[in-house]
Every structure is written in C-alpha cells, then in structure tokens.
Design brief:
The chain starts with 21 loop residues before the first helix and ends with a strand. Strands 1, 2, 3, 4, 5, 6, 7 and 8 form an eight-stranded mixed β-sheet that branches. By secondary structure, the protein is an alpha/beta fold. It has a single domain, classed as 3-Layer(aba) Sandwich (Rossmann fold), CATH 3.40.50. Helix content is 41%, strand content 22%.
Length: 241
C-alpha cells in the first residue's frame, strides 16, 4: 500500500522549507504520482532510454534516488550492470532499503547517502539519471555536478535529466504554472495544499529555463542534447557524452 500524501493538508500547520525527511519519505511515491505530470510515462521513457545506452560491466546511477522507484524500474534492464542509488536523505534511502527487502532486485546494487552540492562521485557509468534532482542542487554547484557526471561517464554514455522548468516568457510561465496547479487539483490536492507546498519549496527548489539547462549541458561538454519529454513546466532531456 502506498501511503496517501497529506503533508500540507493541515491549514493550521506552519510552513517551513521543504525537507526530504521521514514524514515525506513515507508518502513520497504518492506525492510524485500526483504531483508530476506523466510521471509513470517519464519513468517508462527513462528506462527505455537507459536500455539504449547501458553496457555490460558498467554502473547505472540514479542520483537523487529517493525511495528507489527508478532503480526498481531500471532493474528490468537486460544488461549486466550495477545499480547505484545516491540520495542526500537517509530517510529516503531507508525507505528504499525497506522496499528492496520486500521485493529483492535482480541486479547488484548499492545505496549511498551523499549531497550533490559536495560532488557527484560517478565512476565507470554508462547511464546516469537525474530525475527531478538537479533543481534542488544550489545553482552555484550545478555546473560542477554536471562536470562530475560527464567525467564519470564512458565515452558512449548518457545523462537522462528531468527537471521542473521556467517558461521562456513571463506570460507563458504564469499560464504553465496555472495549468500545473489545475493538474494537481484534478489529482485531489486542495488549494491550501498547493499553496503551502509552493511556499515550502520557494527557497529550496530553483528551476531554470529549458534553454539554460540545454546550454549548461553543452557548456560542460555533452556533445548532443535533446528534449525527450515536455509538459508545460516540466521537461526531460537526454545528453550524450
């Protein structure tokens, strides 16, 4: 059973900065499913693209692995790879360990608690996934994080990046946000929940424009960058070394 997200449902609860603590970890799968447009299709696409680049004897990383959903899906890869999950939240990693204990993975795997603001530490990777993670890395360190990832990728490897983004123009950005809120309301979130979560994320999540992400990826040396998913203010990019 997936726990239902009610973290911001209490109208009397004081809003503080969003954290990936134990309370969030317990409901995070439901939070993603109801908060990220096309989340299940994005997951399918990530694994499909990973299968195009994964190579026997290499590592496949999920940086910001949270409760292990993406790693679980990547476990279906036919290649003989080692799965590596990295997250800055020990509560998230503990939830991932619980999930894998109930239903063991086929591939060998490791989980590591690391803060990407302090470096990515990628080695012998054919695929690196950054799904809704880079947006939480401080802007000062994002380029370094991407350089670390590129440096740890094989020459024929790839980075799969999914991010919340800003519109290129203020009017369109407002419209995209409005339609995103309508999406969350259709998924059962109240106006209070939407407003409180947005306030909680204000100082924690810093989105870039799509073009800024593309330019940053090219700037650190990825030779080819293309968009594989776009929904209003969410985008998925594939970057090849």
């Amino acid at each position: 059973m997936v726990a239902f997200d009610r973290v911001f449902a209490d109208p009397g609860r004081k809003v503080s900065d969003f954290t990936f603590n134990a309370e969030t970890a317990q409901v995070f799968d439901d939070m993603l499913d109801r908060s990220v447009p096309g989340y299940r299709e994005i997951q399918r696409m990530i694994c499909e693209l990973a299968g195009d680049f994964a190579a026997d004897g290499t590592a496949v990383y999920d940086l910001g692995c949270s409760t292990g959903t993406t790693i679980r899906n990547l476990d279906a890869l036919p290649q003989q790879v080692r799965l590596v999950g990295v997250d800055a939240s020990e509560a998230m990693l503990e939830k991932a360990r619980e999930n894998f204990a109930v239903s063991p993975l086929r591939h060998p795997f490791t989980l590591a608690c690391r803060d990407l603001n302090e470096g990515a530490h990628v080695e012998e990777a054919s695929v690196v996934v950054l799904s809704l993670t880079l947006q939480f890395v401080r802007p000062l360190y994002r380029e370094r994080t991407l350089r670390d990832i590129r440096g740890g990728l094989r020459d024929d490897g790839c980075l799969i990046l999914v991010e919340k983004i800003l519109g290129e123009e203020s009017l369109l950005n407002r419209l995209f946000i409005q339609h995103y809120h309508e999406f969350k309301q259709r998924n059962g979130y109240s106006e209070i929940e939407i407003a409180k979560k947005r306030e909680a994320l204000e100082n924690v999540l810093t989105p870039y424009r799509l073009k800024e992400n593309e330019e940053m990826l090219h700037g650190v040396g990825f030779r080819a960058v293309d968009v594989f998913f776009k929904w209003y203010n969410f985008a998925g990019l594939l970057a090849c070394k």
